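User:
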Amino acid sequence: MRHLLVAPLALTTFIAIPNARADGETSPLLGGSVIGTASTRSADSAAGIEVEAAVWSHWLGFAAEFSSNVWSGDAPPTTTLVLGGSVRVLLLRSLVGSPLEPSDVEMGVELQGIIEKTMWSSSDDSQDSYHRGLGLAVRLRGSTDDDVPHLIAESRFFIRVMSWQKHDPPIAARMTQPPSSDDQDFMILVGIGAAFGGGQPRYLQQFRRRVFE
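Assistant: Predicted structure:
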């Protein structure tokens, strides 16, 4: 699992489209999302909210994330607080016409490598508090109204596949046996959200091309 994040991110360094550069931000993008999660090996599911702060340097981004989730299953609902971080690679971006506004929007696709740690849980379950995984996000960027100048408005949809050690084996077993794939559990997380941040005037001007036509 340690190589799960490294290999895809290294590969996309070489195959990323040359014009995929997130070079219009002048501040971190602050955002929030509504998320839903389902386990692939149990009846557990969760719903929650997530907040994040992301910074970009050309095609490479880094984000700090915090989420609160309520898990439901056979046992009483469990509330968790999760702190995470992600490395994001912008694979491509392109201007497309907006179906709702007389202006263009920027569509971008991101590949994400994520690691999370459960900081607090209302349950005493022995599942590993560290989650690791990969994600893919589709984002739409535009500019806000003229009464809030130099502001990027971004909406996004994302999906993530996360893995963790299902149970902590006894100490003797950990010393004599390598981790088994049967001890791994996976979950699929989907979310939709929005983010806002400062933008360069020249970058934002592309979203107003059709406003005055």
